[in-house]
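Dataset card, provenance and construction

Sequences and ligand SMILES were collected as paired inputs. For each pair, a complete structure of the chain with the small molecule in place was predicted and serialized as structure tokens. The example below shows a pair involving zinc ion. Curators did not alter the output after generation; any descriptive sentences attached to a record were derived from the structure itself.
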Amino acid sequence: MPQRTKEEKAEYMRQWRTEKAEHRRQYRLQYAAEHQEEISAYNSTYYFAHKEEIRPRNNRNTAKYYRRHREEVLAKNALRYALNRAKILAYFADLYQRDRDRILARCAKYRAEHPDKRQALNSAWWKANPGKTAQYNFKRRSSIRNAAICDFTDEEWDILQQVFDFRCVYCGEKAELTRDHLTPVSQGGNHTLHNILPGCQTCNSKKNDGPVPSPVQPLLLAPIPLPKKKKA
Ligand SMILES: [Zn+2]
């Protein structure tokens, strides 16, 4: 029998692999089934030893896959969520209970680092929920009407803004100003001059029903009313 050349050997092996493809596949499956624990132990050891290089690679691949199969991935996720909703919610509720402080701290940190993102999300939400916006505004207006004192006039608002040079009393920016209740109306504050200060939308929503973001001095004296426009 003549000696086979290197190329001939390689060709023989290639052929063998092709012919036995199914056999080899079965063998691998059987091996995996029989050595399950061993393999997963090996895999996790390997993963933790090479985490630094594996993780970014995995993330990159996941992102790439997502870009190419976005619709598919979203549909799959939605389906999985629909099927396991109760389980998923229970999982997160449990996680929250166990790790509450850390989660809240992380959220606060993220909010502080991404104020623009949060604002964009907020305004997107209000836009997407016009019914709720109207409801909120209605509730707000009616709670203002029901305040014990409700005598703040548009003229006083003009004067108040002039006094503060049309700047937000909290951050000092010249922006579109809103009537900010020092003591929120929802907490018994009045809709009257000495409980109202001009605040920009950002500071106002940051303050929400909480304490003032920076020390401020309300106008305690009633302003001299602006001269009434003479009727023509
Ligand atoms: Zn402001």
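Derived descriptions for this record:
The first helix runs from residue 6 to 19.
The beta strands are 177-181, 196-200.
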